[in-house]
C-alpha cells in the first residue's frame, strides 16, 4: 500500500533543493534558505543523511562559545551524469556530479563510423573514460547531435556524413550498452539550454548553430520549444535571399565552403574566410552572401517568433562577428524592432556538452527529489546505501 507524501517529506525535499543549489552549507544556512524551523531542518538533515543523500564535509569556523556546525553536501554516491556533444568533426564528453560540478571532460576528433553499433560503443567508451573518477552510478546521459531530434530518440536531418544515425538506432544502441536512461537532443537545443541556465532573465530567444549544418533552437518563457513533427526547426530549408541558395547552403561550413569554391576561392578550410581576409571580388561576394543569409535568418525569426535575443554559435560564429555591423544596419532598415543579436565564447564540443549536462541535471535532480519524497515509505537498511532513484 502506497502513501502520499506528507508535509514532513516535502520539508526534506525543500532541504535537498537548497543543498543542490547552495552546498556546501551549514544547517543554520539551510534554516535561513528554506524558511523552515531549526528543528524541522535538523530533523530533515538527519533523515537525508540516514537515507544516504547527504554527507558531512567540514566544520564551520565560529567565534565564541557554542558547538561548531558541520558543512553538508550531496553525497558523491548519489551518482553522476554525462553530457555528450557528438559532432561531425569533434566529440566532447562532460561528466558532472548531481550538483553540476565537473568531474572530467574529454574532447577528441570524431571517429568515422560506418555502423551505428560501433559508434555507440565508441561513445560509451568515451563516457566511461570521462567518468573514471566519478562516484556512484551513472544516472543520465544526454547526447547532442547535429540534427533535429524528436521525442529524445529519433534523429531527423543530420549532417550528410552522419546520415547513418537518422532514426532511433543510435538511441537504442547506446541504451543497450549502459545501465542509465539515454536521451538525444539537437546541438542547437543543448547550446541554448546552456545559455538559459547561465542567464535566468532570458525569456524569449532564438539560436542558430552554424557548423557542419545549420541548426536552430527557440525558447518561449525560458522553456525550450519542441515541435511535434520533423519539420519543426528545419529553418535551413528556407530561401537565403541569395539566388537559389537555401539558408543551409550559406550558414553551414559545408555549404559555405562549396559556395566559396564556386566563386573561385580555393579554401582549404572555412576558417580562412576570416583568418586570412582578402580584398578581391570573390572574397567580398562570399562575405556579402553570408551577410544576406544572416539578415534573412534573423528577419524570419523576428517576424514569426518575436524573440528578444538571437544567438549565433558554432564554427562560423567568428564570421558572424565580422559581418555583424552590416547585419544590424540592414535589419534596422527593414524591421521596426530589431532583436538583440549576440555571439559569445563557444568551445567546440564542450559548450554543447555542457548544455547536455544541464539537461541531464534537470532530469536526474527531479528523480532525486522524487526519491526523497518516497524514501520514508521504503524499507530502511541498517547501513547507509547508495540512494535508489
UniProtKB/TrEMBL annotation:
The keyword Cytoplasm does not apply. It holds the Pfam family ROK. CDD domains: ASKHA_ATPase_ROK. It comes from the Bacteria. Keywords: Kinase, Transferase. The keyword Lyase does not apply. GO terms for molecular function: kinase activity. InterPro entries: ATPase_NBD, ROK, WH-like_DNA-bd_sf, WH_DNA-bd_sf. Gene3D superfamilies: 3.30.420.40, Winged helix-like DNA-binding domain superfamily/Winged helix DNA-binding domain. Belongs to the ROK (NagC/XylR) family. PANTHER family: BIFUNCTIONAL UDP-N-ACETYLGLUCOSAMINE 2-EPIMERASE_N-ACETYLMANNOSAMINE KINASE, ROK (REPRESSOR, ORF, KINASE) FAMILY. This is NBD/HSP70 family sugar kinase/biotin operon repressor. The lineage of its organism: Bacteria, Bacillati, Actinomycetota, Actinomycetes, Kitasatosporales.
Amino acid at each position: 500500500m502506497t502513501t502520499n507524501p506528507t508535509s514532513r517529506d516535502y520539508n526534506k525535499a525543500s532541504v535537498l533543493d537548497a543543498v543542490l543549489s547552495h552546498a556546501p552549507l551549514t544547517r543554520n544556512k539551510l534554516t535561513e534558505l528554506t524558511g523552515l524551523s531549526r528543528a524541522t531542518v535538523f530533523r530533515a538533515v538527519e533523515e537525508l543523511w540516514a537515507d544516504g543523500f547527504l554527507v558531512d564535509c567540514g566544520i564551520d569556523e565560529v567565534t565564541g562559545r557554542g558547538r561548531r556546525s558541520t558543512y553538508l553536501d550531496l553525497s558523491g554516491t548519489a551518482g553522476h551524469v554525462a553530457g555528450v556533444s557528438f559532432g561531425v568533426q569533434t566529440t566532447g564528453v562532460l561528466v558532472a556530479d548531481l550538483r553540476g560540478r565537473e568531474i572530467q571532460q574529454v574532447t577528441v576528433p570524431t571517429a568515422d563510423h560506418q555502423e551505428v553499433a560501433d559508434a555507440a560503443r565508441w561513445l560509451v567508451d568515451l563516457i566511461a573514460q570521462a567518468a573514471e573518477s566519478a562516484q556512484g552510478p551513472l544516472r543520465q546521459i544526454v547526447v547532442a547531435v547535429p540534427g533535429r531530434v524528436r521525442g529524445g530518440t529519433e534523429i531527423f536531418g543530420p549532417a550528410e556524413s552522419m546520415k547513418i544515425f537518422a532514426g532511433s538506432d543510435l538511441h537504442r544502441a547506446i541504451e543497450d550498452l549502459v545501465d542509465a536512461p539515454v536521451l538525444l537532443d539537437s546541438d542547437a537545443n543543448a547550446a541554448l539550454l546552456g545559455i538559459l541556465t547561465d542567464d535566468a532573465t532570458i525569456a524569449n530567444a532564438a539560436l542558430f548553430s552554424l557548423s557542419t549544418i545549420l541548426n536552430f533552437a527557440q525558447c518561449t518563457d525560458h522553456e525550450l520549444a519542441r515541435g511535434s513533427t520533423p519539420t519543426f526547426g528545419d529553418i535551413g530549408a528556407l530561401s537565403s535571399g541569395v539566388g537559389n541558395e537555401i539558408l543551409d547552403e550559406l550558414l553551414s561550413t559545408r555549404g559555405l565552403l562549396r559556395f566559396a569554391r564556386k566563386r573561385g576561392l580555393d579554401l582549404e578550410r572555412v576558417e580562412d574566410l576570416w583568418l586570412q581576409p582578402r580584398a578581391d571580388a570573390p572574397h567580398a561576394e562570399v562575405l556579402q552572401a553570408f551577410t544576406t543569409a544572416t539578415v534573412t535568418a534573423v528577419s524570419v525569426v523576428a517576424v514569426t517568433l518575436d524573440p528578444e535575443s538571437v544567438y549565433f554559435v558554432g564554427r562560423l560564429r567568428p564570421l558572424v562577428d565580422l559581418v555583424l555591423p552590416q547585419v544590424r544596419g540592414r535589419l534596422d532598415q527593414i524591421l521596426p524592432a530589431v532583436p538583440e543579436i549576440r555571439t559569445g565564447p563557444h568551445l567546440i564540443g564542450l559548450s554543447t556538452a555542457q548544455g547536455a549536462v544541464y539537461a541531464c541535471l534537470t532530469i536526474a535532480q527531479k528523480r532525486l527529489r522524487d526519491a526523497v519524497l518516497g524514501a520514508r515509505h521504503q524499507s530502511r537498511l541498517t547501513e547507509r546505501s547508495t540512494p535508489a532513484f
